[in-house]
Design goal:
By secondary structure, the protein is of the alpha+beta class. About 45% of the residues lie in helices and about 15% in strands. The strands form 2 sheets. It has a 3-stranded antiparallel beta sheet with strand order 3-5-4. It has a two-stranded antiparallel ribbon with strand order 1-2.
Length: about 140
């Protein structure tokens, strides 16, 4: 926003008005409200919504190497925030990247609570400050 020609003392509504398209919000919603599915009694993340079979196979292949289903679920449901913004993250501050990670975490908590009201999830941020990873699992 600092480099936008529409920046007038960080006028967020004006910036949104000129720089953000509705399609941008629609695309970002796939991260904030992710597609999930149940497989063998656990909930798995399918961020793109088209790889359920492949994710299920990866879970089956990785499970024998994990200490528990909880560890497998936590590992399978990871989103590396820096990878989402691979071409632009280096132009953002550590604080901004962490703020985005917190936003994703908050949205996942709400989304999982609404979609699976009878289940309990832990949603957390792990990793280093500039490479945060958002994940969720059931204890």
């Amino acid at each position: 926003m600092k480099e936008s020609p529409y920046n007038t003392d960080y006028n967020v509504p004006l910036y949104i008005n000129y720089e953000i398209y509705p399609e941008d919000i629609e695309i970002i919603s796939t991260i904030l409200l992710p597609i999930t599915f149940e497989y063998k009694g656990i909930i798995l993340l399918n961020i793109e919504g088209i790889y359920e079979k492949e994710i299920s196979e990866m879970y089956d292949e990785g499970l024998p190497n994990m200490a528990s289903k909880v560890e497998a679920q936590e590992s399978m449901n990871r989103l590396v925030v820096d990878d989402v913004f691979f071409n632009t993250a280096d132009r953002s501050s550590n604080e901004t990247i962490m703020n985005v990670a917190e936003l994703i975490k908050h949205n996942w908590e709400y989304h999982l609570m609404k979609k699976y009201p009878n289940r309990h999830f832990i949603v957390e941020i792990v990793g280093e400050s500039f490479y945060p990873v958002v994940t969720f699992y059931e204890p």
